[in-house]
Amino acid sequence: MSVKPLSYYRERYIRFQPSPFCPGCGNGIILNCFVRAVDELGIPQKQILCVSGIGCSAWIPSPNFRGDTLHTTHGRAIAFATGAKVYNPDLYTVVFTGDGDGAGIGGNHLIHAARRNIDITVILVNNLSYAMTGGQIAPTTLHGLRTTTSPYGNPEHPFDLVKLVAAAGATYVARWTTYHVVELTRSIEEALQHRGFSFIEVLSQCPTQQRRLFGFRDPMRRLPSRILEMFAESTYIRGRPQRESYLYALPRGEPDEALKAVEDALKGLEASARLVDHISYGRVVRVDSEDLEAVSERLSHLSAVERLVDALEGKIELGVFVREHRPEFTESLRMLIERAGGMR
């Protein structure tokens, strides 16, 4: 991947205007990755159509991207993109959507576009809630998280979007986060070159709403980096060797008190402990050591520790999950039209 100054991408691909995004939003990172992928592939901007619905993610291309954009109604971006692709199959048609817009209100369009294997790329930004409209429960909100419509915790379980879309028939499926910018950029390149329905879920930070979701009380300026650190801590990349010489101690009470109890219990061992944010378990104590058996023996009876979990438990898997080929929708449709015309 070539490295060029940010000013190059901004002047070539971005319309100059005030940002519509909240401070610390991950959408700017995703836009950055997208234009870098386009530039790396050398795709002329006139050959790209970006389609978006309603929500924070809709502003990634519209009106930021210096090219053709179609800003549509809530939940209907994939339907509009399908029509545009059928009319002009030579366009690189890219949908930017959110978890509420694309998996909630537009969920039916998502699974049927995957089933048809139409040659569009869907980049779904997952910030775990209906962020723009106030932070309500979305189909991706994790069980137990607090939102404006679940102030005591979400009673529902979320979609695993990569499994959903893969089961529906998508032929390229990936998941990354806004922390994994190099992998995300390369994945967008692969999706744009893939012939068929390609889907990339991007777990993204939203300090405005995730402050409530995860119970963070830091100043707003600290939240973006804290959430990105949480993404790094709470994920692993499939197929990549994992360092598993650590475990997590889940606090029974206050995390600071649990950390002190853990540090006292570990005296005499070659081990270190620190507080980290875990997307599934909240604020936990991470213990690094080459002798986890001895660590577990010391910590398993602590009253300040609810339980111990291993390195990968509760983490989100990242990577490319599906990469295959089967007949593409617009090609099949064109052959059908030709066959029907020959029968007149």
Notes on the protein architecture:
- The chain folds into two domains: 6-234 and 317-332, 3-Layer(aba) Sandwich (Rossmann fold), CATH 3.40.50; 243-311, Histidine kinase CheA-like, P2 response regulator-binding domain (Alpha-Beta Plaits, 2-Layer Sandwich).
- 36% of the residues lie in helices and 21% in strands.
- The chain contains twelve helices and twelve strands.
- The chain has helices spanning 6-13, 27-41, 77-87, 99-105, 107-116, 161-168, 181-193, 207-213, 223-233, 255-265, 292-299, 329-342, and strands spanning 48-52, 68-71, 92-98, 121-126, 172-177, 198-203, 235-237, 246-251, 271-278, 282-289, 305-310, 316-323.
- An eight-stranded mixed β-sheet has the order 2-1-3-4-6-5-12-7, with helices on both faces.
- The longest helix is centred in the N-terminal third of the chain and has 15 residues, at 27-41.
- The mean pLDDT is 94.
Summarize the structure.
This protein has 344 residues and is α/β, with parallel strands linked by helices.
Explain the layout of strands and helices.
Blueprint: H1 6-13, H2 27-41, E1 48-52, E2 68-71, H3 77-87, E3 92-98, H4 99-105, H5 107-116, E4 121-126, H6 161-168, E5 172-177, H7 181-193, E6 198-203, H8 207-213, H9 223-233, E7 235-237, E8 246-251, H10 255-265, E9 271-278, E10 282-289, H11 292-299, E11 305-310, E12 316-323, H12 329-342
Helix pairs in contact: 2-7, 4-5, 5-6
The CATH class name of the largest domain reads Alpha Beta
Order of helices and strands: HHEEHEHHEHEHEHHEEHEEHEEH
The main sheet comes to: 8 strands, mixed
Give the CA-CA distance, first to last residue. Answer: 52 Å
CATH H-level homologous superfamily name of the largest domain = Thiamin diphosphate (ThDP)-binding fold, Pyr/PP domains
Could you tell me the CATH topology label of the largest domain: Rossmann fold
